[in-house]
Amino acid sequence: MKNIVELLIEKKKTISTMESCTGGAISNYITNIPDSSMVFSYGAVTYSNEFKIKMGVNKEIIDKYTVYSLETARCMAKTISEFTNSSYGVGITGKLKKSDPFNLNGEDDLCYLSIYDKESNKYYDEIIKVVHDTREENKEQIINIFVEKMINILK
């Protein structure tokens, strides 16, 4: 994460997150880095559909594709980027090997990650099959994939 913060500072770019299944873990890791306040604008944990929608995620996207979809992750990423006027927005939604009684659709072991680049209006997407037994290990898996992907975007 240190490399991401350093690259964002160097490029004079900012980042914001809208996380669901990771519960703010990416925001936490970013803000653990000195000088992250120069690049980190905002982190939202939108665990419920209600609060995704209140933050600006299009309800029709959730209704059409389900909350557990790449389309929803993309909408989360773009919405948070626009809300905060950040260079990059990160959207993450999915299940970490547990069913959701409020949203029965979707695989129980898939996570959807989208990074939105406002300047180029481009999405960088990843569908992640979580493989570990604990939520903590699965969050770490997602964070590691995010870090690799974000560094590649910034280089």
Task: Describe this protein with a few key phrases.
155 residues, alpha/beta, Maf protein, five-stranded mixed sheet, 6 helices, 42% helix, 22% strand, globular
Mean pLDDT: 95
- Which percent range fits the helix content? 40-55%
Rg, rounded, reads: 14 Å
Specify the CATH homologous superfamily. CinA-like
Write the layout of secondary structure elements.
Blueprint: H1 2-11, E1 15-19, H2 25-31, E2 40-45, H3 49-54, H4 59-65, H5 70-84, E3 88-94, E4 110-117, E5 122-129, H6 135-154
Parallel strand pairs: 1-2, 1-3
Antiparallel strand pairs: 3-4, 4-5
Helix pairs in contact: 1-6
Explain how this protein is built:
- Strands 2-1-3-4-5 form a five-stranded mixed beta sheet.
- Helix 1 packs parallel to helix 6.
- The two termini are 14 Å apart.
- With 155 residues, it is of the alpha/beta class.
- Helix content is 42%, strand content 22%.
- The chain has a single domain (2-154), classed as Maf protein (Alpha-Beta Complex).
- The model has no long low-confidence stretch (mean pLDDT 95).
- The protein has helices at residues 2-11, 25-31, 49-54, 59-65, 70-84, 135-154; strands spanning 15-19, 40-45, 88-94, 110-117, 122-129.
- Strand 1 (15-19), helix 2 and strand 2 (40-45) form a beta-alpha-beta unit.
